[in-house]
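## retry 2 of 3
previous attempt timed out at serialization; input unchanged, resubmitting
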Amino acid sequence: ARSRASFSRDHDADARIIEKFEGRQGEYFPPKNSIEERHVQRLFEIEKIRADVVRTAIQGLCTFLGTTRETRKQVLIVSTWVPGGMSGFAYDDFRQIQRAAARGNTAIYPWDPRGLLMYPLTSIRAHEWFKVLAEQTGGRAIVNTNDGLPGMRSMLDDSSSYYLIGYTSTENVHDGKFHEVKVKVKRPGVTLRAKPGYFAYDADAIERAAAPPPPPVDADVTAALEAAEAPDQGRALVAWAGFDRDASGAATVSVVWESGDPRAAIDHADVIAVSDTSSFRGRGQNAVTFPAKPGDLSIRVAASAADGSPVETTMLSMAVPPPGKVQLTTPRFFRGRTVRVVSAADAVPTASREFTRQDQVAVRAHAWTDGGAPATIAARLLSDHGVVLQDLAAEPTAAGYASIAVPVGALGLGRYVIEITAATRDGTARVLAAFRVK
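## retry succeeded, writing output
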């Protein structure tokens, strides 16, 4: 899921957004979007997934606020969510939030909107978690009350007047642990609120902070990532286009499409491709292939249901380059549940660039050379920063392509790039193809 944080002084607009918010705690049906539909397939894990989303959102917000100016920051959390019982995982969640808030000088004010609760034990436990989280970050817990206004006023009072004091320990301890700090005042009748301590950076954290900034990301890697960021989410139609060459060097363009929404029943699609020198019009079930000349190509894909009613239309653009001494054509991704499916000679490429760890994924690369000289194809897996993660085997096939197995099952969630190179005695070629593991 993609999320966005925005900061505004338009309180009326913020209030309207909050008024439109609808919680989904304990509700699973009907799914509101494709993300919730995928969650339903893991019904017993939905609440854990939602809890992880809340935790990472709070932690990320505190981390982001730490990058702003060095002042006291406050976060109001209106939720019934807590890290849970006293299990190890729940405690780890709590410590991650506490650590991010301490480093970002952020006070957390948890507010349980359920009001006065006389039951059950889980609610009492939740309130205790809220109180500890607020105390450890310098905030206040607004719980077990039907009137949240006094707590909100206290939050505003806390931010209206405060002292920001810098502190350096004389012990010079760098152990990565939490160290308690006590703040005292001599003035009588004063209620003091301060953070209970700080996390000392360990040697590894200090070394990372002192290290020079990483080199800029390769522009080709960035371009590949941007090209793969098609708006698949929520789309009824996902389409892709790429070019290839036959033995004579003539170029062909293939257009493939598939449904991005399980509710969309796509039966066929009409494809119109236009360039300065040629045009094509055709129809297919899930793919069409046609000859093309070098130049920029504009492609319109209009999907329809079995009764001819329109489903969705999308536009693609690509460039067909002229032949060279050695050239890699557009890499094609294949997805299936088994290796046999993705390695079949008649397999249809997938238009999507988003995969799960349960998918079997392969990429086929074709190196065309002027004169038919053999080319050596190599492949590497890169991170989204262009760092080489591992070499990938490029197995030759009878059709003249190299098949590259992509180990998505062993990858973490995120974006990756496959670098494919072809080398002959006449030169080399390089192409990048990006994908996402979700």
